[in-house]
Amino acid sequence: MQLVPYIVRHTNLSEQSVENTVSLLNQDCTVPFISRYRKELTGNLDEVQIGSIVEFKNQFEALEKRKSAIIKAVKEQDALTPELKAKFLNCTDMTSLEDLYLPFKKSKKTKAETARKNGLEPLAKIIMAQRSDEIEYIASKYLNKDVINEDDALEGARHIISEWVNERTDIRNQFRGQLERYALITTKVVKTKKDEEKAQKFRDYFDWSEPLNRCPSHRFLAIMRAEKEGFIRIKVEIDDERALQNIERRIIKTNNACAEQIELAIADAYKRLLLPSLSNELLKAAKEKADADAIQVFSKNLKQLLLGAPLGEKRILAIDPGFRTGCKIVCLDEQGDLKHNETIYPHPPQRDSSGAIKKISSLVDAYKIEAIAIGNGTASRETEQLVKRIPFKKPIEVFVVSEAGASIYSASKIARDEFPNYDVTVRGAVSIGRRLADPLAELVKIDAKSIGVGQYQHDVDQTQLKTSLDTVVESCVNSVGVNINTASVPLLSYVSGIGPKLAENIVVHRNENGAFKSREEIKNVARLGGKAFEQSAGFLRIKNGENPLDDSAVHPESYNLVSKMAKDQGVSLKEIVGNTSALKGINLKSYCTESIGMPTLEDILKELEKPGLDLREKAKVFTFNQNIKEITDLHKGQLLPGIVNNITNFGCFVDIGIKESGLIHISNLSDTFVKDVNEHVSLHQQVVVKVLDVDVARKRIQLALHKKGA
Asked: What CATH number is associated with residue 560?
């Protein structure tokens, strides 16, 4: 089996595209670089398609590695024939490979192995031949010191037959298919724990049953968590009689005494070997699918969050609100550098609101503040109301910013390195302010799992989750581009071809030598070689540099081409950037070569039209209903402004300005069928919702997306 045909079969992409992409991956090219700067080679594949090639390439390599290990193990047992080796090599998936290897696994001491040592395999073969009606008489010939009577002999033979039944790939595949189609997942509560407080959130699953193939990922993960925490027991159920009959039809060909023994052996194989093994396999597959679904939801949310609207380079006063411990205030300049910090106490128990108002007002004037960011945690609403009472000398926009993960950042090594002389409260407030200015640049410093936009993120495969989220962060960072002269080490480390060590080297070089004046200077960074420069240069921006193209997504490898375009239009390189009339006169087809085709030329032209354009929207001010402060203020039928703060497969959660977020179930997003929640709402979208139901005791709020004019 070859790599490229394997990927083509799973992706339906063209063989040439796959072959060229694999070649680029083998040359250590990154996915963002390939999708942006090698479109001619890939056939214009996007990041998702290239990501699929990476996924199946890894899958193929893991399969081939496992084949080699199995062939080696079977060879060491002197059991490898040319035919068997060919079967191993021709396996196209891990399940069929493991089924084929099953008879050769060196397992712990089994009942069948004991029976073989007692000399009962010939008897098992006679029974399987199904030609004798005198099976007890034949069994009497196999008695010895370990096999005392005929019943012992027949039982031992049945154990061997049971193992043979279990190892038959046709039977396993047939039963596997039956489980996939008809298996039920059932749950029963652990009676000694049913009254525990923590068990109550799982009470829907105290006595639950549904077809496993129709169990949605979020419910399956909830059930698995309930079992893990010891509140329920899970069982896979199937029509046992039908399953046994299907197996019997494949094996039993007569109606004699041998058939009776085989029937008993099949029942034993089914109950003791097949059902437990394939039920676990089915649950594992369901878990993998649920993990994949949950990770996909998390990834979509994370992408929307990272590409959230930035306010831009503004002077920001950020407030981390609190009651007893006060509100921490920091003042940041346009680059996000900390200029001042202190604490005010406007809320109970101190209630020094007049002193707080004076202090905020004086800081706004002293540091020429242009916007105020308030964290959305404890005392957020009260602090927002206080700030909006202040009569500033000029209009100041006030934003409420998500604090999710800010405490993780403030206690992290990254935060300690950035602010070694300040405590966690100051670092947290700085993070809130910087999130308003540029969510992407700040959120990359936090472990993505801690940002709070996933479902069951602690229950899914953690390695897969990290890989997927890192891919999302890398994609977002490179799609926006990074200012090399202001970016932090964490942000730089996600740039194509850079990584943590080179990111540190860039910052060290910047600190020692001053700002980079051109992309060419990037080559002077320690250990940043030609490959790293090729992969990263197009994503690194230099504002007000020597070459105007250095602040664009045009790759340095295309600079000469752009210079030729400018010369042909009779203008300088600086004059062609953003020059609509000159750009309209360019005939792209005349610049096509073997290596540069229309996709790349069209990208270059777009960049020249609007160099360094940020694809993100600008931040918008938002205000919650000031009369709603806690869940008891809600009532059925209210229309409220809200912000979507999490999206799941079953709906989305909306922040309406109180501690509890409300749920818009997927059925309440539209009057028509909703296949994908993301087609109707996006993370941080400002919406109007209608209150459908309020369960104060369980702290649950049911909402509907309000349609304008309804």
From this structure: 1.10.150.310
Question: Are 523 and 499 contained in the same domain?
Answer: no
Q: What is the pLDDT of residues 94-137, one digit of tens each?
A: 999 999 999 998 777 899 999 999 999 999 999 999 999 999 99
Residue pair 370/333 in contact (Cβ under 8 Å)? The answer is no
Separation between Cα atoms, residue 396 and residue 184, nearest integer Å: 59
- CATH code for position 148: 1.10.3500.10
Per residue in 322-365, pLDDT tens? 999 999 999 999 999 999 999 999 999 999 999 999 999 999 99
- Determine phi and psi for 371, rounding to 5 degrees: -155, 155
- β-partners of residue 641 are 688
Beta bridge partners of 665: 651
pLDDT, the chain, mean: 95
Query: In this structure, how many other beta carbons lie within 10 angstroms of the beta carbon of residue 20?
Result: 19
Residues 6 or more apart whose Cβ sits within 8 Å of residue 82? none
- Helix ranges, 183-312 (H): 217-228, 240-251, 257-269, 275-306
Domain count of the chain? 5
Q: Assess if residue 304 is contained within a domain.
A: no
What CATH number is associated with residue 475? 3.30.420.140
Question: In sequence order, what are the beta bridge partners of 540?
Answer: 482
Does pLDDT of 229 surpass 70?
yes
Cα 652 to Cα 661: distance, rounded to the nearest angstrom: 10
Using an 8 Å Cβ cutoff, are 302 and 477 in contact? no
Give residue-wise pLDDT tens across range 626-653: 889 899 999 999 999 999 999 998 999 9
At 692, is the secondary structure helix, strand, or coil?
strand
Question: What residues make up the domain containing 46?
Answer: 3-104
- State the Cα–Cα distance between residues 550 and 563, nearest whole angstrom: 13
Same domain as 215, residue 362: no
How many CB atoms within 10 Å of residue 545?
19
Residue 308 within any structural domain of the chain: no
In a domain, 390, yes or no: yes
Chain-centroid distance of CA 71 in Å reads 34
For β-strands 540-541 and 482-483, DSSP reports them as parallel
Does residue 653 lie in a domain region? yes
Residue after which a domain boundary falls, among 259, 292, 325: 292
pLDDT, tens digit, for every residue of 440-488?
999 999 988 888 777 778 899 999 999 999 999 999 999 999 999 999 9
Helix (H) or strand (E) run with residue 234 in it:
strand 232-237
Residues 357 and 469 in one domain: yes
Q: How confident is the model at residue 665 (pLDDT cuts 50, 70, 90)?
A: very high
Name 689's bridge partners.
640, 705
Report yes or no: 326 and 343 within 8 Å, Cβ to Cβ: yes
pLDDT of residue 709: 43
**Whether residue 164 sits in one domain with residue 69:** no
Name the nearest CA neighbour of 252 among 179, 165, 176, 150.
165
